[in-house]
């Protein structure tokens, strides 16, 4: 099975002009992105909560979670981010891909634009009455 690695800029939503490039393994099975704590600390991104996760072998771990800005080829989005600890993989998860308007094509192992749908049917035009 091939792996897809991608360089994406990560930043603090409070200072979006300052970003740092990070090389991610794209994992469409992961919900959240995982970024090394050192990078998030340098960018001034602070943890907002702790969350428990279950690993594939059944082990439970707790990691801190915050919010980061992600930028890739002109696309910008904000998503939850996990503060990676020593030994954690650097992952780009589904929430971040969706925030960037992208989806992983599993056959070609490349990113494709994600059709953006607001929801429901279009509203009929409003008629002004005087």
Summarize the structure in words.
The protein has helices spanning 37-42, 94-99; strands at residues 5-12, 15-26, 33-36, 49-54, 60-72, 75-84, 91-92, 102-105, 110-113. It has 130 residues and is mainly beta. The radius of gyration is 17 Å and the shape is globular.
Summed up, what is this model?
The chain has 130 residues and is mostly beta strands.
How many domains make up the coordinates?
A: 1
Assembly type: single chain
How many strands in all?
A: 9
Structural class based on helices, strands and sheet pairing: mainly beta
CATH class: Mainly Beta
Identify the CATH architecture: Beta Barrel
Task: List the defining traits of the structure above.
mainly beta; 130 residues; 9 strands; seven-stranded mixed beta sheet; Cathepsin D, subunit A, domain 1
Which helices and strands appear, and what pairs or packs with what?
Layout: E1 5-12, E2 15-26, E3 33-36, H1 37-42, E4 49-54, E5 60-72, E6 75-84, E7 91-92, H2 94-99, E8 102-105, E9 110-113
Parallel strand pairs: 2-7, 3-6
Antiparallel strand pairs: 1-2, 1-5, 4-5, 5-6, 8-9
